[in-house]
């Protein structure tokens, strides 16, 4: 007599997939595998999952593919569950902050116009990405009344560079 031993493909419950995240320069999607089914009693088999977006770029309607890897002493007796895809992933633009600018003190003139000095410097760019900031920084005081320590809103700056579509300026 001869016996043919075949590996069994295991089933896996629905994974928990984080479909929305901020841009970080990678394709990685956070995922936790669902529960395994089809493992024979007494067998030591575990499952882990990896999720990948179709691209690393910010955008909507992205496909996320989840693949499975088996572990444990008896994993070689089984076939990992088939990959699953989800077409609802979103990578949001990463917020960048600007430093290096300061409002210039001035005498009361009845307006909210604020002069801004300094050179804008971006913080939060992912290593390896090319993003620049350009434009003329203009400022507006929160109110036209006399005071110190007043909030100034800066505008007039924009992002450029090969990777700029993955970013947005934040307050």
Give a description of the structure.
The protein is mainly beta and 171 residues long. The protein has no helices and 17 strands. It starts with 7 loop residues before the first strand and ends with a strand.
Return Rg in Å.
Answer: 26 Å
Assign an overall shape. Answer: rod-shaped
Overall average pLDDT: 93
Measured as a percent range, the helix fraction is under 10%
The profile of the biggest β sheet is: 5 strands, mixed
Order of helices and strands: EEEEEEEEEEEEEEEEE
Catalogue the unreliable spans: none
Spatial order of the strands forming the largest sheet: 4-11-9-8-5
| Spatial gap, N to C terminus | 76 Å
SS summary, helix count? 0
Structural class: mainly beta
How many strands in all? 17
How large is the share of residues in beta strands? over 45%
Tell me the layout of helices and strands.
Blueprint: E1 8-9, E2 11-12, E3 16-17, E4 20-22, E5 28-29, E6 31-32, E7 36-37, E8 46-53, E9 59-71, E10 78-79, E11 84-92, E12 94-103, E13 113-114, E14 116-123, E15 132-141, E16 152-160, E17 167-169
Which key terms come to mind for this protein?
171 residues, mainly beta, 3-stranded mixed beta sheet, 17 strands, 0% helix, rod-shaped
Overview in brief:
The chain is mainly β and 171 residues long. It is built from no helices and 17 strands. The model has no long low-confidence stretch (mean pLDDT 93).
